[in-house]
TrEMBL record:
Pfam families: Glyco_hydro_47 (PF01532), PA (PF02225). GO terms for molecular function: calcium ion binding; mannosyl-oligosaccharide 1,2-alpha-mannosidase activity. This is alpha-1,2-Mannosidase. Pathway: Protein modification; protein glycosylation. The gene is EDEM3.
Amino acid sequence: MSEAGGGRGCGSSVPQRAPWSLVAATAAFCLVSATSVWTAGAAPMSREERQKLGNQVLEMFDHAYGNYMEHAYPADELMPLTCRGRVRGQEPSRGDVDDALGKFSLTLIDSLDTLVVLNKTKEFEDAVRKVLRDVNLDNDVVVSVFETNIRVLGGLLGGHSLAIMLKEKGEYMQWYNDELLQMAKQLGYKLLPAFNTTSGLPYPRINLKFGVRKPEARTGTETDTCTACAGTLILEFAALSRFTGATIFEEYARKALDFLWEKRQRSSNLVGVTINIHTGDWVRKDSGVGAGIDSYYEYLLKAYVLLGDDSFLERFNTHYDAIMRYISQPPLLLDVHIHKPMLNARTWMDALLAFFPGLQVLKGDIRPAIETHEMLYQVIKKHNFLPEAFTTDFRVHWAQHPLRPEFAESTYFLYKATGDPYYLEVGKTLIENLNKYARVPCGFAAMKDVRTGSHEDRMDSFFLAEMFKYLYLLFADKEDIIFDIEDYIFTTEAHLLPLWLSTTNQSISKKNTTSEYTELDDSNFDWTCPNTQILFPNDPLYAQSIREPLKNVVDKSCPRGIIRVEESFRSGAKPPLRARDFMATNPEHLEILKKMGVSLIHLKDGRVQLVQHAIQAASSIDAEDGLRFMQEMIELSSQQQKEQQLPPRAVQIVSHPFFGRVVLTAGPAQFGLDLSKHKETRGFVASSKPYNGCSELTNPEAVMGKIALIQRGQCMFAEKARNIQNAGAIGGIVIDDNEGSSSDTAPLFQMAGDGKDTDDIKIPMLFLFSKEGSIILDAIREYEEVEVLLSDKAKDRDPEMENEEQPSSENDSQNQSAEQITSSSQEVDLVDQESPEESFLNSQPESSSPADTDNAASVSASEQNSNPMENHETTSLDGECTDLDNQLQEQSETEEDSSPNVSWGKKVQPIDSILADWNEDIEAFEMMEKDEL
Ligand code: DMJ
């Protein structure tokens, strides 16, 4: 069985250490046919239904790709809320995320081989012509070496692989003459200067035009890179070498891998998250299978598959053994410290690790793959998508979801390995959720916050490169695809490389040290995986029986990982002091801190600051304990800060032609109607006059019974609220006056009161940054009547509502109460202050462990609290701080109560009919737009 078909390593009769190309043909027989085996458990899905779902995937791809091509191309990515291209330098910087953008039409290149998999050969031919005609790889832009390799080099090579396949078939691409490969080679040479380090590990960034280290390159001063960044090159680089005969690429990628292997922590066989590219020292010594490391492991196994080089499998097996020993705490996968692998380094998991069950299938370790996948699915069922990070008890840690494909990838591989139709149902849910929550008129928008359902103006290229491939392949039969997918291997970006490369230009690997690897005793390694054809027919309920105990894992959360550490010390040894147990008033704890080289500094304001000097520790082991303690403290602190924040709110545009599909992230107010406790407020919007809302409105008739739009600035938020309330508004949206500001780039905050009693303010108030606000203002300009819903969580888009012109009775009552409010709140306190008050509500991920970069780290904690981390020192407050504890409690109560499927209407409509309706109005919308033009 080939990797692309799922479960590489499958094939019980495979001779040991056979080059993979020999295995591919044999192994194809061991794949379980998705429909032929399953006799119990989830009901089989009919061919018709699978075809219908496959067609839905095609339609969704057309919607994403079509909008990119129409509104964004030749830009790198589509901004689906504002329906335009994302051009680097023209939008506010988003930091590292932007390093994927090189002004090289990223999404087009990343989509090339998806077009062929989805049987869109004609479109592929057009797309290749566009790449050859329009794409420039010589821009003066600093890009990520890792992202450029997996997305652009991988995209060009995947495109080339399928172009030559099509050409050989004799119908399409007859004109093709390796042009994509030539571009790939040109790009390969552009990446090579990054490897000019003593270690051979590449610099993380390169200037496409000027390389590294030259002044005009504006890069080359970095000292660190992530393990995945340095260890995810071999597939693309080896393919480039073997396609072209230029050996240098494979050599460089092998050298980087050799170095990482040398640097593994020898007792645990784990690698850290970041490494110094000059000294080879581990900079971050935590280790997991998610962000920062993920595809390093993936590429070791896949390099064995593609290149047939045993040393890669030996390395992978060694690491895998360590992962299963320390990181795998079924169903969780939790980061640990490389030197003390029995100690967890985190209390949360990131979404990137969702690829791991797929890799386990490839290795042939199905059971833990089923377990972790099921745990992830339970999290998805709770939040509709996998949040970027979630805690061991399955609470949201980082609330974004940029439409990542990893879970779909694992679902596909598990289906191929088990043939269990359950995984088809999982795929169906993924499709439904994407259409229901992420689809917007101009593409699919990333989720800014899975709890509120709000969107981000972002559609990453990997959504097209990966998501649609895996979803389509999940439902496709062999005959639905115009070539044999099993002849190819998927890169980490799901680009396809042909397995025949393993026997082409093999001399390259012979020259390299990796193939002479003999260091480990590999006698216990299993060189094959279980043959699913034998395993599952004997026990068709196998996968189901593994999943069953996990069905309620999210509801009845069991943070096993944390317990495990204590368990390991039950044998007698005293457990190290954990950050969460630390009490600044406990003399025993203070003694332990001293031993670890951690000192307490009492600050004037009553807080205490912790500082570690490794050199002052009693021993190197104590110093390490101290470092770990500080890391834990920082982590705990950031987690508790997050928990103390008010969650953001949502402004959902519900009128034609949006119908609830566009959801904007809004900041809450510390006064007025609390949307988390009350029903949402719905109404048409109207701009207030004066627009800043700082004095009595001159247009009360325009805002009466409506949601008033007010500009930020000139006076207090509370004052604006009172003025619009007096004019009869039922709610208010404050729009930032700082042009270009966006919740993508600025931390969200709560609007604070004016320091006085704000109980008189009864209407809900929300804050939008300028970019989100202008989406509403543009809509008013275009459609005049714009209706919005203010809530704590976006509501399902129910097309029935599209026909409702009249406000609901609920809104009637809101209108009435607004009128009452108007008459009862004539007298308000006016505060004459220049700057509005605000308190920050940071929803951005924070750097997780700054402490481990040095031997001195510090964190502040409040001594007065019995829990040392109940401190407010990092909460940035421009205005007054409200009682966050109460709010937190209310917030969690609300979270418990909130049903993920609240619907506007009472009617339940099947998803198919919802989708059909949507398609109709999207078409109508497009027609209307064309007519207007
Ligand atoms: C993709 O670009 C690749 O899969 C990469 O390895 C990490 N994840 C992103 C998508 O989430």
